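Lab meeting notes turned into a lecture example. A postdoc, R.K., suggested we walk through two folding results consecutively so the class can see how the record format repeats. The first protein's sequence and structure tokens come next.
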Amino acid sequence: MSRVGEQPIPIPNGVKIDVSNQHVSVTGPNGELSWDIPRGISVVEEDGHLQVVRRDDSNKARSLHGLTRSLVANMVT
């Protein structure tokens, strides 16, 4: 289990998140960033935070889980 990947990502005030298909876009006071999420990983927005979820327990999905969470968290903050 990825300890990093399981942590929720809080969304600060003034930041807009758009998650569609395998693409996430973040717009905030400092500009706009976007990134294509790898297959096997999904990002879900709920209750003022983002959660990164892997679809299966394959080696590739497990290795991308924490990486995806870290990259998306850096986009949001």
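The second example is placed directly after the first for contrast:
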Amino acid sequence: MARDADAARALQPVPLALAGLGLAAVAGLGYGEGGGKLALAALIGGGAGASLYHASFGFTAAWRRIVRERRGAGLRAQMLLIFLACCLSFPLMGGWGEASGVAMSGWVLPMGVASALGAFLFGIGMQLGGGCASGTLFTVGGGSSRMVVVLAAFIGGSVWATAHWEFWSALPRTRSGVSLLHALGGPEPALAAMAALLGAIWAASAVVERRAHGALEAPRRTGSLLRGPWSPTLGALALALICWLTFVTLGRPWGVTSGFALWGAKIAAAAGIPVQDWSYWSGWRAGGLERSVFADATSVMNFGIVAGAMAAAAAAGRWAPAPKLSARDLATAVAGGLLMGYGARLAYGCNIGAYLGGLVSGSLHGVWWLAWGFAGSVFGTWARARLAMDPPLSPRPAV
């Protein structure tokens, strides 16, 4: 019945046209600032937004469901996405990229107190806010008024953290990052090790679900490629393609939240706050404050995600912003956004840049982020229960 109702929804031509024009404008402005590479980045972002929306592919709900409902389909889809992305990124970093004449490098970053705390805060924030970094962008594009508030707070939290960068960067951490490709001697053994880790998480989620429910939940099926919905497997395949295209086009993994910090810093500077004097914005980051946001590949991709999700929502007949928010919705949106923004800067990124980007780089800091981010998500899920943000669970049948 639900699928029939989805099929009966009329395509919305006006928001679809606006989304298309917006994506074209972002691609054009990106081209003007950085040539074809940034124009292509905008289009890749548009594909990411449409894929995220049609597959409802979020890290937040998947982590909450495994903790609260003992359902792991979303978590297993994440493992599939990461493995598929690693299948190309590891060889590219292991020699394919150099052979093709394109410089490619992953993100191999240190692990320490600040990154652990940042990931933990992000995990709490994603549950209170109701979306992660990519989830915030695609739901904003999909027409969620509440997530506009989350995004604004996310931007504020991001630039706020850069004001304290000197303090956090002085806390204990490893001297350098750990790359599986270097530690294990190449892409093949590194990919085998990553497959073992991801497979263990996949299997553990299946065991938890079977013990709680007796069987795995039937996966959502793909309805329409253009109008959705998509199955989690199709969503994982599409997003793996986004990861590959980003790696080949930009020479590095997909990232999201550095763009938020840049937007916030530009707004703060326009308001007279001397962000250029903060240590975070010295060195190579100083140029970002002086250039257009359309010269920043991460920002261009982010704008593309919003436009792509808006187009997907309009194609599905579901773009319908509702500006009315309750006091609880507003408070949790602000709190969640601030925690995610602040935490992402401390943890070198979010679920995309630090978790997904770290793992597809073969860096152990991605595993470090996963452990602390998931712990924060567990706490955030408990907080949601205390705030009655989720409907009561139905009694489980005896297994």
